[in-house]
Structures are given as C-alpha cells and as structure tokens.
Amino acid sequence: MTTSTEWLSQFRHRTPVEIRYADIDMMRHVNNVTYLTYLEQARICYARDVLGWDGRWDTLNIIVASQQFDYLQPVFLFDRLEIRTRTARIGTKSFTLEYAVVRLQADGTEEVCGKGSTVMVTFDFVHNRSYPMPDHWRATVIAYEPATPA
What we know:
By secondary structure, this protein is α+β, with helices and mostly antiparallel strands. The chain is built from three helices and six strands, in the order αβαβββββα. Strands 1, 2, 3, 4, 5 and 6 form a six-stranded antiparallel β-sheet that branches.
C-alpha cells in the first residue's frame, strides 16, 4: 500500500469519526489500539452501505481473520477524521478490506495518518466453518468498486 493521491482516489466509501476524549492516551494523541475500533466502525458502515446489511446479527456472517495497520502521523483530539474503506480483493471464502485514516485539514487538504487492511472470512456460526462468499455480495462489491479484482 502507498499513500499517493492516486491510491487515495480508489476509496469511495467514507465514514466520519468523531474523536472522543477517551480515545486519547497520555501522549495526547489517539491511542494505537483505538485505530482498530475506528476500522471496525468503518467496516460495519461499509457492510451496511455497500453490502446492504440490515443490522441483524444473524445476517452478517463475517469474521476478521487477520488485520494489519501502519501508523503514519499522530491524530489529536479535535482533528476532523474519516476512515475510507474499499474492497481490495475478493477470494472464494474471504475478501480483503483496505482502510485509509484521513485527517481533513481546515484548508481542504487531506493527510493520510494511517493505513490498514483486514482479511474478512464469510463464516457459518452454526456449523463453525467458513463458506463461499455469497454471489450477491460479490456482484454488489464489484458493481460498487469495479476495479476490485475478483
């Protein structure tokens, strides 16, 4: 992953994040662990907005198989922040989401403060095993993000 303008332009989905006082650590910036909760919130909004998730827990059958995050710049209490999310890869039973943590500057410029990814697996909680990604999810993601490799 890079942080070029071209890379950032690949992200259509945006989730605004309000930084809470509790997110700040003794170094006066957002604590490293908190970024993962920001990505989680963006992931849930992406599932709702792109995959059409209805909010029912028995219909969102995905789990995080792995996650990775790079911290590039500190984020502070009153920064305006949004998480950009995109599907970077679709496999048979998994897909990879990429994230950009973007600070929105007062002058209209943007600064990438962090970037990450999660590998998501479609999962049957009743039988405790993965299963192929539903065709309608695959079609919906490709329609929303035509550059996603299937």
